[in-house]
Amino acid sequence: QVHLVESGGGLVQPGESRRLSCTASGFTFSGYALSWHRQAPGKERELVASVAPAGNDAVYYSPSIGGRFGIYRRDGQNTVYLQMNSLKPEDTAVYYCKAVGRGSYLGEYWGQGTQVTVSS
User: Fold this and answer.
1) How far is CA 56 from CA 36, 62, 84, in A?
2) In which order are the strands placed within the sheet that holds 18-25?
3) Each residue of 67-101: pLDDT tens digit?
């Protein structure tokens, strides 16, 4: 059974940093592109950052995060991280991770989300 479990959310002060984790099980993690998305109240879910499957260094960041976030994967741990720096109130959202199969790997999976609230 496939599981994607996010953790690391919570209440954060503006300007602080927070690292989110997404740990996977039930599929061949290295064969999947991984991404973080977020959904703020009343808004559509948006892509924040993505990283290609293992062996490919390609990463993408949404212009909306202005270079403040970093995505990286640790295939030995079946985990993808989102390092968030200089957090702003507008970063408040539920953050979701997603895995999409590439090549011979099939399937698309979402985690349940973790709430990040940036407020003083």
Assistant:
1) 17, 19, 22
2) 3-7, 18-25, 79-84, 69-74
3) 999 999 999 999 999 999 999 999 999 999 999 99
